[in-house]
């Protein structure tokens, strides 16, 4: 155990969530907080907890200062002058001071008057414009969970759009603290890449040319909680508008370089998308494509009570048809109370089918509990939503919506008379469905879906009917030469 691990572990407590050391070290490295250049440079962690970042900062500062031959007394003065922390929780703040003191003592530095204060960072202004480095892991708390702080949070300009989060406000605070050439290095959720709440932040970062590096941790979970995170390095006074994009090597726990990008590459339709340049150009072609193919992509049946509607019924009925569960490809049977014209079969007709009607009556209470888009009790035995009913008697191809690679795709033919639920389906003539199948069963499609960044646990990505439609419109209309 080295000095840093030792001083942190002294004060670790019951399951609270801290930044692991390898993340801290990576952020410091990526921000340029190393070497003799950090001596007499101001650094702050404005939500310092028990000091995960400040312990590493103090260790690096002491090493560099000693390398330059500074005396212990001078280093003690420097640590008080140049290393700053803010933490709202008194106990955490005290732990932090004990932890950084442990590091200073290890280097033989006498008592330091630490500038680590217990305060609400949203109310601290006196570091503004003065910091060379702002480093840390700001709090992630949705604004509707922040209680009394709500009104204060909403006063920040980055908090104006959508359901914001504390971490977005901490970007604003951190940027304000930087001096004219300062560097900010945070690890935060990556949700601001494309969330409504992140819109003002994205615009600001682009307008002011602040993005120096992005290290997208993608599915990698650096913390105990399920949060998809990214390391972001922002820099003031950048000379060009090229940023470096990295992903994270889970095994060696280090970033690896992917590509150099400009906002023209990654700022697409007001959102951030990161990948290599070729994948981003494909994404732009898909997003900006004006072509259109006549394959529709839709959501399957929504009964809102699959337990009753779908199963292995032990009787036959004219109102029970085959159905495919798009998410698994599994075949089953479904009670389908509609005619070929998609109209609901009257209850008086269903009643004539004794077995079926008895079955329905035995589940009537459960069925009437559903919300029903028609808002009338007469529809108690209908599907909860009418989606997909119009396509039951057309040729379809089912599509599951969770994938990691091409081999996860389940594209199954659902011919006329077979329904689809729990996933998507394509509808169009046979030849076009065949072309669509080929287009989807490709690494390009998987690359496109992973770029959209809709993470699911287990390394999976999900996608919507709109995402598939945009891809097919591009692939089939242009590459397949099929303008509808
Ligand atoms: C995600 S933790 C990170 C702690 C530490 N920087 C680390 O990386 O281990 C966020 C910290 O911010 C503190 N915090 C939350 N709201 C704050 C506020 N308004 N002002 C200052 N600190 C705050 C929390 O108490 C918590 O210690």
How does this model look, in words?
- The chain is built from 17 helices and 22 strands.
- With 484 residues, the protein is of the alpha/beta class.
- The strands form 5 sheets. Strands 3-2-1-4-5-7-6-8-9 form a 9-stranded mixed beta sheet.
- It binds S-adenosylmethionine (SAM).
Short note summarizing the structure:
With 484 residues, the protein is of the alpha/beta class. The chain has helices spanning 3-10, 21-31, 52-67, 72-82, 90-106, 150-154, 166-177, 199-207, 263-266, 277-288, 306-309, 347-350, 354-362, 364-368, 430-440, 443-452, 465-479, and strands spanning 43-45, 83-87, 115-118, 131-136, 178-189, 211-216, 229-235, 243-249, 254-261, 267-268, 271-272, 296-299, 310-311, 320-325, 330-335, 396-399, 402-403, 411-414, 419-421, 424-427, 455-456, 460-462.
Keywords:
484 residues, alpha/beta, Rossmann fold, 2 domains, 9-stranded mixed sheet, 4-stranded antiparallel sheet, 17 helices, 22 strands, elongated, disordered N terminus, binds S-adenosylmethionine
Distance between the termini: 66 Å
Order of strands in the sheet with most strands: 3-2-1-4-5-7-6-8-9
CATH topology of the largest domain: Rossmann fold
| Arithmetic mean pLDDT | 92
User: What's the total number of strands?
Assistant: 22
**Name of the CATH superfamily of the largest domain:** Vaccinia Virus protein VP39
Strand content: 15-25%
The radius of gyration computed from the alpha-carbon positions, rounded to a whole number of angstroms, is 29 Å
The set of bound ligands, ions and cofactors reads: S-adenosylmethionine
User: Percent of residues in helical segments?
Assistant: 25-40%
Spans with pLDDT under 50 lasting ≥5 residues? 1-16
Main β-sheet, in a few words?
9 strands, mixed
CATH class descriptor name of the largest domain: Alpha Beta
The outline comes out as elongated
What is the number of helices? 17
